[in-house]
Amino acid sequence: MRSLKALICRIASKCARTIAVCFVVEDALGRLAPVQLHHFPACEHLNDQFALGLHFAIKEPNIRSSRDGFVIRIESPSDFVRLLPSSPLLANLTFPPPRRLPVIRLSPAQQKDEGNRSFAQRRFAAATDAYSLALDDKDVDDTLRIILLANRAAVLLKLNLFNAALADCTTALPLGPSPSLQLKILYRAATAAYARQQFVDASEHLTNLLQLSPDDLDAQDLYRRTQVRLVEAARGDYDWPFLFARATQVETLDVAEFVSDAFEVKEIAGRGRGIVARRRIEPGELLMVQKPLAMGVPDPKRKSFVVGANLFTETMDPYAVGDLVALLAERIGDDERTRRRVLALHAGDESILVPIGDSTSPGIDISRLEAIATFNAFHTESLAQKSKTLSPSEEAAQNIHAPSSLYDLPSMLNHSCIGNVSYSFLADVFFLRVRLTIQPGDELVDSYVDSLEGLAQRSEKLDKHRFVCQCQLCDYDREDGERAGKERERLASQLEELTDRIHGVQEQDPAPLLPTIRAFIDKIQATYKPSRPNLRPALYSALRLLGATLGTLGKFEEAIQVELRALVALGAEFEGEREAARLVEVPKLGDLNGVLSCLFIASQYQKLQKSDAVRNWIAIARRIERGQAGEAGFEVRYAEWAQKNRLTLRLDEA
C-alpha cells in the first residue's frame, strides 16, 4: 500500500469563482502558487471557506502548465483538506509571517465569541472554523468544550452536514451539559437524525427531551412529525392530497422513505443489478418512496453557470448536473453511509474505477462521480408543476436549466420500452407504482425513453447508455423492417407539420383537412405488418389528431370511436359497448396519453349528455392513473385540462 503525498500550504489571497474557485497559496518557504479548485458547491461567503491565512493540505497535487507558468488543479474538494493548528502535518513546519494579516492568537473563549458573531451574520463557514479552532486548542476546558460542540452542531445543521452535526451532539451529551444546554443538544441531535431518516433515533432523543421539558413546543412538533414519518416508513401510508398541495409551495417535501417488501435487488444475467418481484404485484401498488442523495437545483438568481460537455453521452449536460456532482462530493465527504450508497451505483462498463474500500486513493474520484451522475441521475419534473407545450428552442433552454437528482434504489431500475412500473416526482420525492400486473420473478422495468418514438430514435438514445433493448415493442419494430421504420419517421415529421397547420386555422373550418388526416392514418397503418398485435404507437398521434378534429366539428360519436382506436394502439384492451366499456388491459405505452384519451372520450360523452358514460370513462382514466402517479392526485394532476374542457373529474359530481 503506497503512502499519499500532500502539499502543505496556506491561503495567500482572496478567492474568485470562474469555472472553478481560484486563489493563491504559499508553502512554508513562502513560494506562491495559483490554485483552481473544481466541483465546489455554489455558496455564499466563499472567502470564509478559504480565508486568508488558513492552512490546508492538497492531496497528490496535480500541477498543470498554463499560459503564465503553472497552476495547481484540484478536481475534488475532498483533496483540499483544512488543517487545524494541532495537525501533525504542521508540527515540523514554520511558515513565514502572513503577508497581509497580523498574527492574532485568540483564546478558545474568544474563538467562541467570534463563532457566535459569524453565526448571527449567517456566515456559517466562518462560524464553523472559529468553533473548530477553539475545540482544537489544548487549553479548552470541558464546560467550554460542550458549548463549542453544541454551537458547532447548530452551524452544521444550517450547512446540511447532518452526520457531522449528529457526531458533535453525540460527543457533547456524555460530557454532562447543563440542563438548558442538554435540551438544545438533544433537539439538535434529533433534528440531525430526522434529516438522516433515522426516525427511531430521533424519537429517542425527543422522548428524553420531553421528559425533561414536557412543554417544549418545538420538541412536541418534531416528535409528532417523527411519529408520522415512522408510520410512512413502515406502511407506505402517506397523505397524498396534502403532499400534492404542499409540492406547489416548496422544493423539498418532509416525508419518510419507504421500500416495499414486494421486491428485491439482485444480479440479472446480462443486465447487471436489477429489481425483481418476490410476489405477485397488482397495478397501483406503491413500491417505493425515495429522497435524493443529492439534488442540483437551478438558481434563477445566478448570473452565470457552467454547462458541461458530457463525453459519455456526447451531449450537453444541464448545468445542474455539475452542481449535483459537486454536492455529491461534499455529501460523500461528510457521511460514510452516503459515500457507499453513491459509489455502489453503476458508472459505465468501460470505467476504470478505484475499489470503494481503497483508502490509498486521494479523496474522491470526480470522474467516477460524473459517470455515476451520467448513468443514474434523474431529470426531476414535479407533478405539481404546471405543464405547457414548448417550442424546440424553449424545450432546449428548459433542459439546460433542468434540476438533476440522484437516487440510489431507483437507479437499479433497468430499461424496457414497455415498462411495468411508473415513477413520478413530487418536489424532490421519487415514488414508484406498479403499472402492469407483475408476477413473482419478473423484473421491474421502466422506459428510459419516449416509447411513442420510433425504433431508430429510441435506439439512438439508449446507445448513449450502452444498451440495446430487446423488449417486445423493439422486436415488433425490427420485424417490420428498417424501411418501414424510416417511413414512419418521415410520416411522423409530416404529421407534426399538419398538426401545426390545423392549430393555425382554429378559427376556420378544419373539415377540408379530414381526408388528409385519414390518409396519414392509412399510410402509417400500412407500415405495420397485418399480423402485428395492437401495439402500434406511431398511429396514436394521428388518431388523436383526427379525434380532436372530429370533436371540434361536433361529430362526437365518431370522435369517441377514433379515440378508442388510439388507446388500442397503445396496447389497451376493452370489453363491451363503448358507453359502458370495461378496461381489460391498461395502455402499455405512454404516460399521460392514456389518461388524457379517456378524459377526452368522457368530455365527448358529456357533450352528448350521457352522464353514465361520462362517469364510466372518468373511472377508466382513474384506473389507468392508479398505476402511474396514483389516484390520490388525480384531480390535481388533470385539473387544468379538465377546467379547459369543462369536465368534472370527481365521480360523485360528474
TrEMBL record:
Q: Which UniProt keywords apply?
A: Coiled coil
Tell me the PROSITE patterns matching this sequence. Answer: SET
SUPFAM superfamilies, per this entry?
Answer: SET domain, TPR-like
Q: Which InterPro entries match?
A: Gramillin-biosynth_MTr, SET_dom, SET_dom_sf, TPR-like_helical_dom_sf, TPR_rpt
* Pfam families reported in the protein's UniProt record: SET
Say yes or no: keyword Membrane present: no
- Please identify the protein, giving its name as recorded: SET domain-containing protein
Give the originating organism. Leucosporidium creatinivorum
Q: What is the lineage of its organism?
A: Eukaryota, Fungi, Dikarya, Basidiomycota, Pucciniomycotina
